[in-house]
């Protein structure tokens, strides 16, 4: 059974679609930022101060958020480096490679954005003499940041696998 060749959109169509995705992502970020600004009451701090346990918990959470933001930046750099290396070595770049790279970068940018919102929300919650780690908004943003960052890592791994698998098949296919 032969596979049908997929319809390949034109350059203007593909770029317009990518631009639309970026605009929708920006709108989603604005909506999310406004939603995150509406913090609800959480656990109030005793005497307006964090206990040692709360301070340690907050430090660990912010370290995790920072680590995920650093991973997102590294993944963006790795995707760009991978594409540059591909072009420098005159290896054909398929549309799938570009689409995967685009999706990886969007997920990474989303993870960065959400990490910044987590930190900003922590500052706001602390200013209200509340414990940020138990704040539902902070926790939701942190979860979504983790999922988008993990998605970027997983998609990058898949991208590398499929790219080299295709290269291996291309190099082992007999020439007519």
Give a quick summary of the entry.
76% of the residues lie in helices and 0% in strands. It is built from four helices and no strands. The chain is elongated, with a radius of gyration of 21 Å.
Features:
176 residues; mainly alpha; 76% helix; 0% strand; elongated
Percent of residues in beta strands: under 5%
Global geometry: elongated
Task: Tell me the total number of β-strands.
Answer: 0
Helix percentage range: over 70%
**Number of separate helices:** 4
H/E element sequence: HHHH
Mean pLDDT: 85
Distance between the termini: 21 Å
Q: Report the sheet with the most strands, covering strand number, pairing sense and barrel closure.
A: none
Structural class of the secondary elements? mainly alpha
Point out poorly predicted stretches. none
> Which radius of gyration do the C-alpha atoms yield?
21 Å
Structure, explained:
By secondary structure, the chain is mainly α. The protein has a domain at 64-170. Helices cover 76% and strands 0% of the residues. The chain is built from four helices and no strands. It has helices at residues 11-36, 52-88, 95-127, 136-172. The longest helix is centred in the middle third of the chain and has 37 residues, at 52-88.
């Amino acid at each position: 059974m032969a596979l049908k060749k997929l319809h390949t959109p034109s350059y203007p169509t593909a770029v317009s679609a990518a631009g639309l995705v970026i605009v929708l992502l920006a709108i989603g970020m604005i909506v999310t930022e406004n939603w995150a600004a509406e913090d609800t009451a959480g656990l109030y701090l005793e005497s307006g101060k964090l206990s040692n346990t709360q301070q340690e918990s907050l430090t660990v959470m912010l370290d995790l958020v920072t680590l995920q933001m650093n991973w997102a930046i590294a993944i963006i750099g790795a995707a760009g480096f991978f594409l540059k290396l591909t072009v420098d070595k005159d290896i054909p770049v398929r549309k799938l490679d570009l689409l995967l790279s685009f999706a990886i970068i969007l997920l990474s940018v989303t993870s960065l954005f959400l990490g910044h919102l987590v930190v900003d929300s922590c500052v706001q919650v602390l200013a209200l003499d509340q414990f940020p780690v138990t704040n539902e908004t902070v926790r939701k943003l942190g979860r979504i940041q983790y999922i988008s960052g993990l998605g970027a890592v997983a998609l990058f791994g898949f991208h590398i696998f499929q790219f080299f698998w295709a290269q291996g098949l291309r190099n082992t296919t007999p020439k007519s």
